[in-house]
Specification:
By secondary structure, the chain is α/β, with parallel strands linked by helices. The protein is built from eleven helices and 14 strands. Strand 1, helix 1 and strand 2 form a beta-alpha-beta unit. The chain binds nicotinamide-adenine-dinucleotide (NAD) and uridine-5'-diphosphate-4-deoxy-4-fluoro-alpha-D-galactose. The site of nicotinamide-adenine-dinucleotide has 27 residues, from helix 1, helix 5 and strand 5.
């Protein structure tokens, strides 16, 4: 099957490209390279033995999208392209609505025009806002608390409306928890520009000595050790979840709109992640506990029962292995 991956050069899209290509799907990457580098394609070629097609373009360019869908006889789309930094979304909300909401609108227009109606969308656990109960299941009320989260929620609602309007659409919104780690080759991984916002890349940079110490945001949460608890999921497990969603969309009962959590179901505290990274790397990760980060919740972890039951998918990689792969990637990355 020929599959278009918008944002396919980015962190999660590039891992999904490997998973899909390795079982014989033809992948077409479509990316404006605003948060990624074209050399990822040559790294993918080293992993796969062939280079996937890259179309350099923006998801808001409906014409180029339609042309790409036709040229490569695409039958399904995975939509990773978008902006994802919470803080930046507060400072530049219009950029987030434009890229994430308008971008998706342009994409589904192009798809409709070309008769492509299978879509897997990168959503986020952020759509749940402050948890009212744990683990978070898909029935938990949605309430986004920042422009990034609201842009994801708007897209989910737009896609749900679209599926109601036309029974031919098959749409899976995958609500990722905290993706971390890298491909076992160490050739692709998460490579944030500037100071990392997220925990794992920050710890990795402290371990290499690129940064002095980690600031642990809050030590007085109502959690076993007082630090924030999250559901970290390895990026290759996440990639497998996309394949499972794609297979599901091919089934007779898959018409309409569906939301699935992709997490492990296990929460780990910041201190547990630091300790696991120290074990994985053999390095010291100095840290200090500082004030809470505004907008953070104490704990967030998934119930992925729905994905297990309907998609037949379950995460398998454990925290230690996530850290080992992140460290391997960090060392490769640092050597470049
Ligand atoms: P990423 O920034 O590494 O990848 C996104 C890719 O999309 C980049 O290659 C970027 O160049 C491209 N892109 C951005 N805007 C575009 C546009 N207008 N047109 C074409 N290409 C564009 O991010 P990622 O971590 O791989 O995330 C992928 C998706 O998953 C995003 O939609 C993100 O919101 C979502 N998500 C990520 C996380 C996470 O923690 N990484 C968690 C939940 C959801
Ligand atoms: N943390 C620190 N120090 C840091 C960075 C993070 O202590 O330098 C802590 C946070 O306070 C939190 C935990 O580490 O307790 C995880 O923080 P991340 O920033 O890595 O992840 P978040 O859970 O805050 O958010 C991530 C993405 C969001 C997405 C959400 C759910 O950044 O975009 O997961 O998928 F919405």
């Amino acid at each position: 099957m020929s599959i278009l991956l918008t944002g396919g050069v980015g962190y999660i899209g590039s891992h999904a490209a490997v998973t899909l290509a390795q079982i014989g799907h033809k992948v077409v990457l479509y990316d404006n390279l605003s948060n990624s580098r074209a050399d990822v394609v040559s790294r993918l070629a080293r992993i796969l033995g062939h280079a996937p097609v890259l179309i350099e373009g923006d998801v808001r360019d409906t014409e180029l999208l339609a042309q790409t869908l036709r040229t490569y006889s695409v039958s399904a789309v995975m939509h990773f392209a978008g902006l994802k930094a919470v803080g930046e979304s507060v400072a530049q909300p219009l950029a987030y609505y434009d890229n994430n909401v308008t971008g998706t609108q342009c994409l589904v227009r192009a798809m409709r025009r070309c008769g492509v109606r299978k879509l897997v969308f990168s959503s986020s656990a952020t759509v749940y806002g402050e948890p009212q109960y744990l683990p978070l299941d898909e029935k938990h009320p949605t309430h986004a608390v920042n422009p990034y989260g609201r842009s994801k929620l708007h897209v989910e609602e737009m896609l749900s409306d679209l599926a109601v309007s036309d029974a031919d659409w098959r749409i899976a919104c995958l609500r990722y928890f905290n993706p971390v780690g890298a491909h076992s080759s160490g050739l692709i991984g998460e490579d944030p520009n500037g100071t990392p916002n997220n925990l794992m890349p920050y710890i990795a940079q402290v371990a290499t000595g690129r940064r002095d110490r980690l600031s642990v945001f809050g030590g007085d949460y109502d959690t076993p050790d007082g630090t924030g608890v999250r559901d970290y999921i390895h990026v290759t497990d996440l990639a497998d979840g996309h394949l499972a969603a794609l297979n599901f969309l091919g089934r007779d009962d898959a018409a309409g709109w569906h939301a699935f959590n992709l997490g492990t179901g296990t929460g780990h505290s910041v201190l547990e992640v630091i300790q696991a990274f120290e074990r994985a790397s053999g390095m010291n990760v100095p840290y200090e506990i500082v004030a809470r980060r505004p907008g953070d919740v104490a704990s967030s972890y998934a119930s992925s029962d729905k994905a297990r039951q309907i998609l037949g998918w379950q995460a398998g990689v454990r925290l230690d292995e996530m850290c080992i792969s992140a460290w391997r990637w960090q060392q490769h990355c640092a050597q470049l």
